[in-house]
Amino acid sequence: MTNMQRAGTAGCVLARELIHGIPNINILVLEASGPNAHSNGLISLPCTWFQAFQLYDHDWGYVTQEQKMKSHVNPIKEAAVKNGVPYPRGKAKQYNDWAAQGPEYKIWDWDHCLEAFKALENNLRENPDEEFKQFHGFNSLHHVQDFEVYDILSGLVDVAKNLGIPYNDDFNVYEWRRKRCSLADCYLRDALKKVEFHPGAEPNGFRKVVAVDIRSYTHVLEIIWDEENKKENIAIGVRYFCNGTVHEAFIAPKGEVIICSGAINSPQILMLSGVGPKENLEANNIKVRKQLPVGRNLLDHPNCLFAAKSTPEKIHHWSSGSEVGIIHKANVEGKIPCKKDFFDENPDIQIIGIIISLLKLSREIIKQPPLSTVYNIKEIGINDEFGQWITNGDDLSDEDWEKLVFEKSNTMFHPSGTAKMAPESKGGVVNHRL
Description:
Radius of gyration: 24 Å
Distance between the termini: 19 Å
Largest sheet: 5 strands, antiparallel
Number of strands: 24
Structural class: alpha/beta
Helix content: 25-40%
């Protein structure tokens, strides 16, 4: 048996590929949420995805460490089923940087990974040209299609074009018949269809075995190690909590424990199991089995929300630096530290400068027709914590903008990188074979 923690994006794909690629394999998937996330329309519909962040029965509801300059704490979200719409795959350079870490990392270059993405995809674009076909697949399980652009968004795109911002027509969505087609829908559902028959005491001499067993509402406590092996750390199972009781699940002799619990929970499980920074483990009386920089290299996208004003109201007045950040979105790199480490951290001034410049660009976009004419959008404005109008931004100095960025910024719910793939000498937690 292979044991997997979480049926997120990676877990769903792994379950399906393993079950179809390896004969006579059984997989136990331990999932913290419930079995029917898509029964809630707030999760699957594109227009209600943001409201799903308050559904803590389907979301971890984590919050960041409250900062002196921040006016509030912000939830960190990790949910692959929420219909947030975009389908980004990253830049070729990011994959080629992985490959440049050594000859064994060559399998992670852009050319190899692009073929893997194409193998996952069933793109629904009508009459794709030859260039488009080079970057997309058309015969797999994951439905991807172009977004239906409404008038106000068309106006926004036209204004950006007129300001010299390059147009990109290949920004796709995860929707199928206007509902999100998550990897749970296509890959995990397909994996659950596989049934095996083993010798048994049934009337026909065989017993029916479901190849993938999903246990919902479970919480993994730690990895179980082979204590008889004194030379290396060998995982033989996991200990988890379910229905008020602690359970243990063990793998077959050639099985594996696969941790795919996201950028927050994967480090948590590893550190509870004795894998991580030595000082953090010892401070919590956890036996150190392997010292690795688990939780470091945390990457996220900053988000700074501002309001657009329309007269009369013709749209829901939302605008933000992150809207323009879709054109240029910055990464924030850090770590998941113990509290004392916060006092040693310095802000990245370049990141602050990027956010300020994007907010100023947002103001210029709002001032242009048809946004300023057809939709009567007047300006980007700034609200206080009670929603009261403060200023339209005309009288703000760069120092004022910087202060506002510190006070109003939050995370964009995109944590990643906390189990970095790289040689140990370069801060890696896992190698090229993960």
